[in-house]
Amino acid sequence: MSEAAVPQKRKHDDDSSSTPIPEVLPQQTGDELEQMETNLNYNKWMKKIDNALQKNENVNETFESYLRIFKNDGKIWTKYIEHEMEQKEGGELDKKKIEKLFSQSLTKIYDVGLWRLYLKYVQKINADGGEMARSIVLKAFNFAADNVGIDFLESQDLWNDYIRYLNEWQPSNANEAETRIDLTRQVMTRMIQVPSLRLEDDWKLFISFENDTDQAKARKNINDQSPDFMKLRPLSQELYVITKTLKESNKRRHSKRQLDRFAKWIRWEAANKLSLPDEKAKERVNYVYRVSTQFQRFQPEVWYNYVSYLFNEKQSELALETLQNGLILNPESLSLTYQLANYYEGQSDLAKVKETWLQLIRYLTAEYTKKGPEKEKAKDKAKETGTGIDSKKNFARAVSTCYSLLMRQAKRMGTIKDVRSIFSMARKFKGVTWQVYADYSLIEYQSNDVRVAIRSFELAMRHFGKEYDFISAYLDFLISIKDMTNCKKVIELALQNFKDDNQSSFKLFKRYLKIELGFGDTNSIKALERRFIGRFPETTPFDLTVLGFQSDFDSFNVARMTDQYIEPYEVTRQQKSKITKEDEDDNEDYDGGEGFDLPKPLNFDQGFVPGFEPEKKKEPFIVRDEMYNLLRVLPKAEYYEDKPKLFDSKKTAEFFSNLDI
């Protein structure tokens, strides 16, 4: 355990692996990080695009630069193509460029507006009329209906365009007139067979069409479709309730409500309540997944779930492309990086696994470096509030976690030389945490090199000897290899380090006592108990005995049940109140003098530390059963959305407050 026995650097740290990693990780400069953050700022891009359009300068370059990052933004694709359709060289459209833009976006994005623009373009270049041109346009409409006709939120506009085009068709003979009627009926039938935000309006339009076309056949045609419509209407209402609060967000913040809504929508589609064939049902599920990545593009969770779904459906190429697009928008995402690294692991490509992790490490390291001394005040405030989102310490832990995950993956795929190369690089990171040393030591131990594992822990002891969590992990390791001599040495050294830290010192004494009870003898246990009480005089011998009966596997303590007459797992609020009341009653019966207080049992399981007052937790607000019963019988809120406001909350509250029950 002497410092002289701990080498600063091992010879095999320099061993090269099959896919070597540079000893010094290329750092991302502050300017590069700022540029990346600017590239992901949606509002700045919108201003940049608007300025380019107003000045008519660098328009194409601006659109192309934006769409290389925000590849699934259908609205900007639409705006870009509209701009190109307005630019005419020699009085003609640049069809080649426009069609190239459509091919890059149309089938990869679920955006009804983009598809409507495509149909407008097809009609424009086939405006000469004739049966051939009309056939091309109708095929385009069917193509669009197949792709986005199932869109619950906006497909109505597409169907309206389709019907409007058919209505504008001027038949030249009776056969064409009959064909137009048949096509219109087919379109309307398709329209009322899918859930839609305006399904009721679609049904009314269908009835009106049948009545205006042929009164004799209208009743039969309407009756044929009525049963399916009646089944579809409540399902469409269910979808409305699920989707009514969905909204597109371009802000980098977590929105649990939106994520939950999309998850609920996906579960609804996966349940196949529409009783569709498997292929059609999967199309709808895929559609919702893709829409979620367009609405919540800065939420890594939606990308991760969509990619997982695609991998499960054996669509690996699309899954990989989607995952890479998600990482462009969320370069700091650990989950997406992990998912991509796992994919490359499945391909046995260690080089790409390393590069995937190092890309995230570079990004997080730059964020860590950016958090300079001027951020200390904000960091302290975050620490006080328990958030710590922007603290330098949290970014250090994030970078260290990435190194640990990379080491584990390198161990699975490569050799111990790969792991040592990564660990050597991790040690050069200024904010490296003890978890990297602990993970590396365990990997070495699993590789049957106990000597190196111990030396790694000893090296970490120099830097993290005042952190209780590290000491605890170190002790776990030493106990697992049955090195009780060094275990006690580490404890004694740590107790010296914790002499000014009562909380860590108490936890370590508690851990020490458990170790002695498990592996020591009577004399060593008694000696430690005396030291414990000497360090924390408020602790009684009985408290230490109760501590010894604490289960190593859960919070069960039999002595609390048999000797303290309380719940063996935890003390509930009601029981605490009862114990306190009984103590007060005992005090009243005691006639030995005023001011006598019964000693309360020390609650070791709840992290009690003598001399520390735990923060009082607020009691949760509890709604009584009577109120729940009332809420159950009230009509649902959605029943009143389109009706005059009849409910007055103030009068209702006044009514209940005046009730004499």
TrEMBL record:
<dbReference type="InterPro" id="IPR045243">
    <property type="entry name" value="Rna14-like"/>
</dbReference>
<dbReference type="GO" id="GO:0003729">
    <property type="term" value="F:mRNA binding"/>
</dbReference>
<dbReference type="InterPro" id="IPR008847">
    <property type="entry name" value="Suf"/>
</dbReference>
<keyword id="KW-0507">mRNA processing</keyword>
<feature type="domain" description="Suppressor of forked">
    <location>
        <begin position="37"/>
        <end position="544"/>
    </location>
</feature>
<feature type="region of interest" description="Disordered">
    <location>
        <begin position="574"/>
        <end position="599"/>
    </location>
</feature>
<dbReference type="InterPro" id="IPR003107">
    <property type="entry name" value="HAT"/>
</dbReference>
<dbReference type="InterPro" id="IPR011990">
    <property type="entry name" value="TPR-like_helical_dom_sf"/>
</dbReference>
<keyword id="KW-0963">Cytoplasm</keyword>
<dbReference type="GO" id="GO:0005634">
    <property type="term" value="C:nucleus"/>
</dbReference>
<feature type="region of interest" description="Disordered">
    <location>
        <begin position="1"/>
        <end position="31"/>
    </location>
</feature>
<feature type="compositionally biased region" description="Acidic residues">
    <location>
        <begin position="582"/>
        <end position="594"/>
    </location>
</feature>
<dbReference type="Pfam" id="PF05843">
    <property type="entry name" value="Suf"/>
</dbReference>
<keyword id="KW-0539">Nucleus</keyword>
<keyword id="KW-0677">Repeat</keyword>
<comment type="function">
    <text>Component of the cleavage factor IA (CFIA) complex, which is involved in the endonucleolytic cleavage during polyadenylation-dependent pre-mRNA 3'-end formation.</text>
</comment>
<dbReference type="GO" id="GO:0005737">
    <property type="term" value="C:cytoplasm"/>
</dbReference>
<protein>
    <recommendedName>
        <fullName>mRNA 3'-end-processing protein RNA14</fullName>
    </recommendedName>
</protein>
<dbReference type="GO" id="GO:0180010">
    <property type="term" value="P:co-transcriptional mRNA 3'-end processing, cleavage and polyadenylation pathway"/>
</dbReference>
